[in-house]
Design a protein that fits this description.
The protein is an all-alpha fold and 215 residues long. Helices cover 74% and strands 0% of the residues. The chain contains 9 helices and no strands. Helix 2 packs antiparallel against helix 3. The radius of gyration is 18 Å and the shape is elongated. The chain starts with a helix and ends with a helix.
Amino acid sequence: MEFTATARRFGIFSGAATVILLVAYAATLTVGLAPLESPQEPIGEPMITMLEILIISMMPAMVALMVAVHAWAPMHAKTFSLTSLIFMGLLAGVTCSLHFMILTLSRQPEFSGQPWQPLVFSFEWPSVAYALDIVGWDVFFALSMLFAAPVFSGSRLATWIRWLMIASGVLSLAGLSGVVVGDMQVRNIGIVGYVGVFLVVAVLLTVFFYRANPK
């Protein structure tokens, strides 16, 4: 399988889209958290709606980026890149379903007035929504990064991508410790991995595909 000019452009555009949406998500999250007196307070409107829309929009770009990684991967590494792509697809399926449900169903009067509503839709532990978010980002995303890392080697840029993917995956997995100890503040370790470090990974992947030579 050859890395075509179409795959190169696909990698550049999906990488750039991922970077733009991640930056927009991080900026919106910062603005939403700024007025809160406690980390336990929920983010208010309209920021919470913007965050839901941004994270749903981000998923196709992230899956497309891993498709480009799989297209570029050398033949001996395609087993790893395909596994990474599958885990990113699992993340997208869980995340889009979860946040679309929150964006729509949680606001319907049939759901919003029920006493069990926070146990399903809220991001206060424990809840169904929070558990699905954790398995998506702290498990599926982490595994996607860890399986993608062996694909990259050789050049200095590829080596940076490799180690930053490992760091992103390990930090995301470490977020599971919040579930173990019952403290979701500890889970913020994972957020550093899949927002902060992954943003750098996406930037470097965009540069990598820009420099890549199609065959």
